[in-house]
Amino acid sequence: MDIRRRPPKPPVNNPNRFSNDNDDQPRTKASDALPLPLYLTNAVFFTLFFSVAYYLLRRWRDKIRHSTPLHVITITELGALLALVASFIYLLGFFGIDFVQSFISRADTNNEFEDHRLVTCLPRGGRRGVVVSRADANNEFEDHRVVTCPPRGGRRVVDPTLPEEDEEIVKSVIRGVIPSYSLESSLGDCKRAAAIRREALQRITGRSMEGLPLEGFDYESILGQCCEMPVGYVQIPVGIAGPLLLDGCEYSVPMATTEGCLVASTNRGCKAMYVSGGGTSTVVKDGMTRAPVVRFASARRASELKFYLEDLENFDTLAVVFNRSSRFARLQSVKCTLAGKNAYVRFSCSTGDAMGMNMVSKGVQNVLEFLTDDFPDMDVIGISGNFCSDKKPAAVNWIEGRGKSVVCEAVIRGEIVNKVLKTSVAALVELNMLKNLTGSAVAGSLGGFNAHASNIVSAVFIATGQDPAQNVESSQCITMMEAVNDGKDIHVSVTMPSIEVGTVGGGTQLASQSACLNLLGVKGASTESPGMNSRTLATIVAGAVLAGELSLMSAIAAGQLVKSHMKYNRSSRDISGAMTATTT
User: Fold this and answer.
1) In which family does this protein belong, per the annotation (predicted)?
2) Could you say which of 3.30.420.130, 3.40.50.2000, 3.30.70.420, 3.50.50.60 is the CATH number of the domain covering 292-382?
3) pLDDT value of position 98
4) CA nearest to 5, candidates 113, 131, 145
5) Looking at residue 181, what DSSP letter applies?
6) What SS3 class is residue 336?
7) Which pLDDT tens digit goes with each residue over 457-506?
8) Would you say the pTM of this structure is higher than 0.85?
9) Which of 54, 184, 234, 579 has the smallest number of Cβ neighbours within 10 A?
10) Coil, helix or strand for 533?
11) Cβ contacts of residue 552 below 8 Å, gap of 6+?
């Protein structure tokens, strides 16, 4: 930002005036008073201190050996004592230079702000903002606050209700005296820290954050585990699809989304499943993975590690070491693949009701430390070598599975297909073959043999506090449709090999997300069997995906997709008034 202000008073007694980044005169430092450069002065006094200390210790040892009184000193020893004291005083002062300098800079900055109140202006027509002096500002700004001016017709970005103490902290954040990330630890009040950070951000950027709510959120709950440097929270509406009849239980499925028709479509699929007797699901595998990459001097040596890890006689030993990381972590398998002299070791373990990434990482760290005894030449390149594979589409997850591997199925009666889904069994079977199977193969899809599994997975993930980024592998799904009972009914199934969910830890402990988990009956850790709640949540996700697949495929087969989106996914609200208010 370009800076302009009235000429300051002649710096007679205080040459270290506050200046901006464009000032030509350098800021005066405490170290400028030294006759030599700082690094040379430090070297001299460090050498002097340790040299005379060593000399005096040797002299006193000799006096003790020869029974010479210690208080009897020579001229040389006296000089050494004086040099020791002088160097000690310098070193003591040296370590306090930065401390003293901070007070000097703070005092100068405060004086400068007393002389010049800054008014920061937003860009106008592509021009950069300027800072004008208090003499050029209106009298209404006589409170010496930093005021951000908006473009023509806008509003000021300054909060006039900000307490004076918080105002000073905002100024310090803007000047860089107080780091924004340290506000929570410095103030001890997370909400106040978020408000101050938000105000400082508005002044720095010159952009209002009106519309992003600040009130009504527990910022203490996210400290150190969910989000850093918060300035508010985003509101996402939560809709309910269901009841989803799955494995004899009814679930009202919460879906957080801003896509129109999604909840309504999934709800229609749930209805079709419900009146047809519901669906059934099975968790065929449950194990979180982590795959470090290690390197050796030769490929032969890397092969020896592979043979050692995959030898069943060594598994029990590795399991004992791995399982020390948690009372829920239980090592299930170890697989190793090579790329030259690099080894990628994929560990899989059960993690109870937690999603388990941290848990498995701790166990892997324990095993790597244990392996250094037999493989001291092993160089650990990274705790994750992407053979896991986390937050990326990967064939290894599609084939081997990661998290919960679930298959869910339902048989929809023919009359329900006609009355509720508005299509036919034959049309659905043909469309599934040509779109989800053949079309995905033509596109070279990896785990994407479905219509829109990621839509439902993302919505349920956000509502229940899962990691939205893990939607990448959790949405890998193949949808199968087959005519049964002499072509009268349709058998629908979804196979999802890597649903990564948990009911404890991370975002699941936040109030809103915890409420959604409670609605499903899977909040927190299971008291009956470790891991039961997270496995149930995975089956609910798969059941909701099946409902969503069934409804969307029916809409496409019936030619209703565009019509329904034009009706329910487009706002009919007159926004011309809002647009006028925004531009004036």
Assistant:
1) Belongs to the HMG-CoA reductase family.
2) 3.30.70.420
3) 52
4) 131
5) G
6) strand
7) 999 999 999 999 999 999 999 999 999 999 999 999 999 999 999 999 99
8) no
9) 234
10) helix
11) 265, 451, 452, 561
Domain boundaries, the chain: 43-94, 157-235, 238-286+401-569, 292-382
- CATH class for the domain made up of 238-286+401-569: alpha beta
Question: Across the chain, which distance is largest between two alpha carbons, in Å?
Answer: 115
Full DSSP string of 69-136: -TT---HHHHHHHHHHHHHHHHHHHHHTHHHHHHHHHHHHHHHHHHH---EEE--BTTBPP-EE-GGG
DSSP symbols for 210-246: TTS--SS--GGGGTTTT-SS--------EEEEEEEEE
* Domain 157-235 grouped into CATH 1.10.260.40: no
And the tokens for 322? 């791995």
Output DSSP code: residue 434: I
Comparing 99-113, 371-385, 516-530, the range with the smallest average pLDDT is: 99-113
Q: Are 472 and 460 in contact (CB under 8 A)?
A: no
Terminal Cα distance for the chain, rounded: 26
List Cα–Cα distances, 560 to 519, 554, 563, 568, 572, in angstroms.
32, 8, 5, 12, 20
Only one residue has tokens 């244990």, namely: 370
Structure tokens at 299: 């490929």
Which is nearest to 472 in space by CA: 487, 464, 488, 461? 461
Active-site residue set: 259, 391, 467, 565
How far apart, in whole angstroms, are the C-alpha atoms of residue 292 and residue 367?
A: 11
Cα distance between residue 249 and residue 110, in whole Å: 66
- Pairing type for strands 477-484 and 330-339 reads unpaired
Q: ∠ CA(119), CA(125), CA(131), 5° rounding?
A: 15
Q: Where are the beta strands (DSSP E) in 122-202?
A: 131-132, 147-149
Nearest Cα neighbor of 349 from 338, 337, 339, 361 is 361
Two tokens at 57? 């210790």
Are 18 and 112 spatial neighbours (Cβ–Cβ below 8 Å)?
Answer: yes
Phi and psi dihedrals of 363, rounded to 5? -65, -40
Q: Which residues pair with 239 in a beta bridge?
A: 255
Backbone region of residue 531 per phi and psi (left: phi > 0; alpha: psi in -120 to 50; beta: other values): left
246 bridge partner residues:
249, 279
Question: Among all chains, which residue has been given the structure tokens 């990381």?
Answer: 325
The answer to whether the beta carbons of residues 36 and 44 sit under 8 Å apart is yes
Query: What distance in Å separates the CA atoms of residue 340 and residue 149, rounded to the nearest whole number?
Result: 61
Least Cα distance to 8 among 23, 17, 110 occurs for 17
Say yes or no to pLDDT of 138 above 60. Answer: no
Q: What angle do CA 557, 561, 567 make, to 5 degrees?
A: 150
